[in-house]
Amino acid sequence: MNESSENFDEMQAGDGTVRKAYEDYNTWYQAQDARFLKRKHKDAEHSFRRTGITFNVYGEDEAEERLIPFDMVPRIIDANEWRKVSRGIEQRVSALNAFMHDLYHRQEIVRAGRLPESILRNNDAWLPHMVGFTPPGGVYTHIVGIDLVRTGPDEFFVLEDNARTPSGVSYMLENRETMMQMFPELFMQVGIEEVSNYPRRLAKSLAACAPKMTEGRPTVAVLTPGIYNSAYFEHAFLADQMGAELVEGTDLRVVDGRVAMRTTHGYKPVDVIYRRVDDEYLDPLTFNPDSVLGVPGIMDVYRSGGITIANAPGTGVADDKAIYSFMPEIVEFYTGEKPLLPNVQTFRCSEEEDRKYVLDNLEELVVKEVHGSGGYGMLIGPAATRAEIEEFRKKLEAKPDGYIAQPTLSLSTCPIFTKKGLAPRHVDLRPFVLVSPDNIEITPGGLTRVALKKGSLVVNSSQGGGTKDTWVLKD
Q1: Is 264 within the bounds of a domain?
Q2: Residue 46 lies in domain
Q3: Do 107 and 191 sit in the same domain of this protein?
Q4: N or C: which end of the chain has fewer CB within 10 A?
């Protein structure tokens, strides 16, 4: 590669040798003509434009839709590394589901003094409507995205938990499809775990969570806010791939105590709704009365056991970054084991000692809003100007319990394709997890997001990041 990096590079060791996981790929890459690779790079972009793989950007004067940038150099993880990561993810997701059940029942973790009661009282995502209710099959977090970062050969950290409505799986699938179309010979030479069966496994996992009253094959529907939602492409894509119905709130109504969807033959009962609508808009009779995105009365049907909602309402508690800071305690409390995947060190600005440290070291830390997402509402101290730091200081002092802070990690890099050849860029990883009453399935790999700007640590597509195919090698 033609740019140096002090970070752990996943393809190339410090002495210039290629790491084992990348050996077969590197042999292939070195044998390719530069003009061929540049042409393929353009082909990939045209393919994504034809497919319509875009996302909407809110609050900007530019065009509403942007292309998700795709990089054609895969991120490669060997089988042994993946086994270790998978065990850690399974442990964490199991703990998250047990945590959700406990929060809405006896709150043993609070009684035991392992989690402060105030962290729930001040959490907007905690829903009193779920208290005492257990979803069908006892599953709260049906689809989970665990964001990971890497700092060394065996050093993976959990950066974030996405237990509400994790997005990005369609890009994972399209990235693989694009790579297989462009470089079929590569997939003949390198043994790579499959991801294309994800929609089938998702449909099977959701069906396994259907209510007890379901007769015959469960009817599954994907509930979308509509075409103007930033992830609409994904909603339509997954419904199509699963063979499920894509519906909006106006397509559904409560009929005879069941949620039913409008068809050409009248209204047909639905058993499982994979909702991509936030809690607040799910039921105007229970939550926001002005919502036109949800279904009036759906929460009554849900609590009576007449439908499964995936993910369960109230799971957004686990997305909260203040809760995240307690995840080591949560994992140990519910599994009896130390976490296999550690958190990034986190300072709670709500606590006086931590807050003082953060205010004294803003220029060295990453500060995030507790309820923030998408790379917004955060300060990356080392990359911020003095004016930006001082402005953020005022926000933090005004509402300290709204922020957490973390050290700036030396994130690993993977190569991207540039006009001058391969160049390292920072990456993260979002593996997708499917949870059913008797099983936790982890997709081998997941979505790798990459900061396309040299030196940038922000991988979010809304902030200029891109994606790449993630390969988990077979044994």
Answers
A1: no
A2: 20-211+307-340+409-472
A3: yes
A4: C
Q: How far apart are CA 98 and CA 331, in angstroms?
A: 9
Pick left, alpha or beta for residue 314 (phi over 0 → left; psi -120 to 50 → alpha; otherwise beta): left
Mean pLDDT of the chain: 91
223 in Cβ contact with 165 (< 8 Å): no
Same domain? 447 vs 352 = no
**Burial environment of residue 15 by CB neighbours within 10 A (0 to 12, 13 to 18, 19 or more):** exposed
- The sheet that has 365-369: what strands, in order across it? 347-348, 403-407, 365-369, 378-380
Which single residue is written with the structure tokens 């508690």?
A: 317
88-110: pLDDT as tens digits: 999 999 999 999 999 999 999 99
- Residue 356 carries which DSSP code? H
Predicted confidence (pLDDT) per residue in 1-55, tens digit: 444 447 899 999 989 999 999 999 999 999 999 999 999 988 887 777 776 665 5
As beta bridge partners, residue 39 has none
**Residue from 52, 199, 186 nearest 471 by CA:** 186
Q: Would you say residue 132 lies in a domain?
A: yes
Mean pLDDT, to the nearest integer, of 355-384?
A: 85
Q: Are 206 and 220 in contact (CB under 8 A)?
A: yes
352 shares a domain with 330: no
Amino acid at 214: T
C-alpha pair distances (Å), 374 with each of 23, 231, 340, 449: 34, 13, 26, 12
Note whether 146 and 312 are within 8 A (CB): no
CA-wise closest residue to 142 among 450, 470, 418, 435 = 435
Residues in a beta bridge with 407:
365
